[in-house]
Write a structure and sequence with these properties.
Elements lengths: L1 H34 L5 H5 L3 H16 L10 H39 L4 H32 L2 H5 L1 H6 L1 H11 L1 H16 L7 E4 L2 E8 L3 E6 L4 E5 L2 H4 L3 E2 L7 E9 L5 H13 L4 E13 L4 E9 L2 H22 L30 H7 L7
Antiparallel strand pairs: 1-2, 1-5, 2-3, 3-4, 6-8, 7-8
Length: about 375
């Protein structure tokens, strides 16, 4: 009877003690989170309660299972299993704690600089995410190596593995050339400040926002909610447009192809009125010029400014729509037309489209009836 009760007491006691310690720790974190609303550290640490309880339970069972005579035939297997669980849960716990500390540091930095320098906040965000991925990869590799070293056969083969490490490294480097290239490109992007999460970029003719950066790939979210995934080595080997580089302020261009009789001065005044009523215009500058002409039309270009890429798009479409509406209502003769179509004359011209003839002496003499012999 004792051989049956002792395992139940040991296992049950370890589980109950783990649950009690986990509950007490969670309550302390809840109180700390309630008292310190300015930092999310305590709330983030609560996410680590599952690996924390696994570490406690595995450690308690690993230290007490030797006293169970009933499990004597399976002592080695049970001990190795508990060791593997302890190593894995400890690695999980380290990753969660490191993530909570890093996320808290970033949140404090972002809240202090979000309004003053958003570009630096996005830069730090990119670096933090890549650093966390590197830390997670290192912890996982160390935990996996520690698990393998618990097996005697693996320890015996360690010497031969170390002896052939040089050759294996060369072979692996050649085989994973593109992967290693993307890895180093990801580190270069993170610390070289080439592109950041949240930047507005144009790659392969696609306009979008950088949504995710890893050590091997980068995701761009386009304006129509598509996701473009490409290797990070693309951004270190090919040119691309980064509209968020430096200051986010931008200058936009709007083109119209109009008739030669278009009222340019009136269009300048109308552009000013449109921009004054457009909230997205930042008020820095505007302008309107004729930049080109053809036998049938003239090219009119308007320059407008805005504080970022989203607002410049709003300003451009607003100016384009309002100007075309105004021209069609107030100056329809300025719109391009086919030469064979009936033209709408501008103000001050006759309906047949001919210019009024000046009352000059030469014209009066031309209108006099011819004299002479019949």
């Amino acid at each position: 009877m004792e051989n049956v009760l002792r395992p139940l007491i040991v296992v049950g006691g370890s589980v109950v003690l783990t649950l009690v310690i986990g509950w007490a720790t969670d309550m302390l974190l809840c109180k700390a989170d309630g008292r310190h609303h300015e930092t999310p550290l305590w709330g983030l640490l609560r996410r680590a309660r599952i690996p924390y309880q696994l570490v406690l339970c595995a450690a308690l069972l690993r230290g007490s299972y030797d006293q169970l005579e009933l499990l004597e035939p399976h002592r080695v297997g049970i001990g190795r299993t508990l060791t593997l669980v302890l190593i894995g849960s400890a690695a999980w716990l380290v990753i969660r704690i490191a993530g909570a500390v890093v996320e808290t540091s970033y949140s404090s930095y972002a809240s202090a600089r979000a309004h003053r320098d958003p570009a630096k906040v996005r830069r730090v965000r990119t670096q933090v995410e890549l650093i966390m991925r590197v830390v997670s990869a290192i912890v996982i590799v160390v935990a996996a190596a520690s698990m393998l070293l618990t097996f005697p056969a693996m320890r015996a083969a360690g010497a031969s593995l170390l002896a052939s490490a040089g050759i294996l490294g060369i072979v692996a480097g050649v085989a994973a050339q593109s992967t290693l290239g993307n890895l180093f490109a990801g580190l270069q992007i993170a610390f070289g400040d080439m592109v950041r999460i949240g930047d507005t970029v144009v790659v392969d003719g696609e306009w979008g926002t950088v949504e995710e950066i890893t050590l091997t790939f980068l995701t761009v979210r386009t304006w129509d909610e598509r996701r473009i995934t490409m290797p990070v080595s693309y951004f270190t080997s090919k040119p691309f447009e980064n509209w968020s580089r430096g200051t986010p302020q931008m200058t936009g261009i709007v083109y119209w192809h109009l008739d030669h009789s278009a009222p340019i001065e009136a269009m300048r005044d109308k552009l000013r009125d449109i921009l004054r009523e457009c909230p997205a215009w930042d008020g820095r500058a505007y302008g309107l010029q004729v930049t080109d002409s053809t036998p049938t039309t003239v090219e009119v270009r308007a320059l407008v400014t805005a504080k970022d890429a989203d607002d410049i798009w709003t300003v451009r479409v607003t100016v384009r729509e309002e100007m075309i509406r105004w021209l069609s209502e107030q100056h329809p003769y300025a719109l391009p037309r086919v030469n064979t179509a009936a033209a709408v004359p501008p103000p001050g011209r006759p309906a047949d489209g001919r210019r009024p003839v000046r009352d000059s002496a030469a014209w009066r003499s031309f209108e006099k009836p011819a004299t002479g012999r019949r």
